[in-house]
Amino acid sequence: MTQSLIKGGTIISMDRRVGDFTKGDILLEDEKIVKIARSIRAANAKIIDATDMIVMPGFVNAHIHTWQTGIRGIAGNWSIPEYLHMMHAEIAPRFTANDTYLGNLIGSLNQINSGATTIFDWCHNNATPAHTDAAIAGLQETGIRAVFGHGSPKPDAKKGQVPYTHMPHPRSELERLRKGSFASDNGLLTLAMAALGPDFSTWEVTEHDFKLAKELDLLISAHVWGAPNRMNKDGYRKLAKNKLLGPNHNLVHGVYLGDSELKLIVDSGASITVTPEVELQMGHGVPLTGRVRALGARPSLGVDVESNISGDMFTVTRMALQNQRNIDNRRFAKAAKKPAQSLSIFPREALEWATINSAKALNLDKKVGSLKPGKQADLIFINKNDLNLYPVHDPIESIVFQANGSNVDTVMIAGKIKKKGGKLTYRGIEKKKELLARSGRKILKGLKLH
Asked: Which phi and psi angles does 165 have, rounded to 5°?
């Protein structure tokens, strides 16, 4: 047993019973938190100085297509129809297994560097088992905590081919992974299904996939718009009727869902993930943040795609909060015919969306998402002396409104330090960055992107 003692930090636990500390200590034993208090003595513990640091749980990025890291900066002017065609029909088929490995490796390192200790890697470009294994290898090499969402490609069907909308999720691959990389649910990596869902598959495929997830006891996640042209307009009602809808389902986006259907989904215990910046840019529709809150639930948050945004969960959190405040302010002003007299949401709640609520969406809230004795030591230090933060009067406001990934001084995952003094501990990153750049140039060569 190895003990470490984090001393003298401003602790934001995101746990209501533990509370916050202007100055406090955290005692770790191996990968777990064992005590949090104003002052702790542990004679044999290794001291980790957190003076002038905000110590908080690492962000939980509840939705990211990490495989796209090598093609950053190409989708900033795309609408969602343009994205779906260009990314899945034109670009994705060009990826080799090694391209996927490099994207997941550097993408995961960037998440760690930016303060995310857990991600839901929604991997839907694994055309072969080799692609899948390469994606997993990229995650494993970084030491990030990740839910690996095994998905399927979405190419345009050629003449005589079965379209992807009619292809059920491959049982054989999930069983192979369950016997191999994911034989245990106790490691840093756990398995989920990244399924087509009601919007992108026939009812037969939707029913098959949800039954398979239930049989294998896997989290099943799906992209859903809820638009009038979706494949299964009553898919969720059918799933609920067949007792296939519940806490093991994670819905992403859902911006056009009607009120009654959204209530059905929320009441089932399913989670909703909002990716606000991408949704606002690509024309998905109004992020569901406020509508989910109105139903008594809380959203989780994700980056979505680094092919057009930064991948920084600080920005995603701020974007979700301020967008919903704007919606609420306009509604209040319209009703009262004067500006809103108070704001609808406070920053602590937004930080909950990006930490404990996102952990709950991934069925990981008993392990991570807050700082609490018995949980995994997944935490970050934010440097209060950085020029864009100093002086810190309210640490929650500093985190949500001023901070960014550059302020993350230290990152710890399962008690192991992955970033220290503002530098990643991973060795050989410059070589891997160059390989990623070559990969991106090769993938995009000859394509007309705009």
From this structure: -65, -20
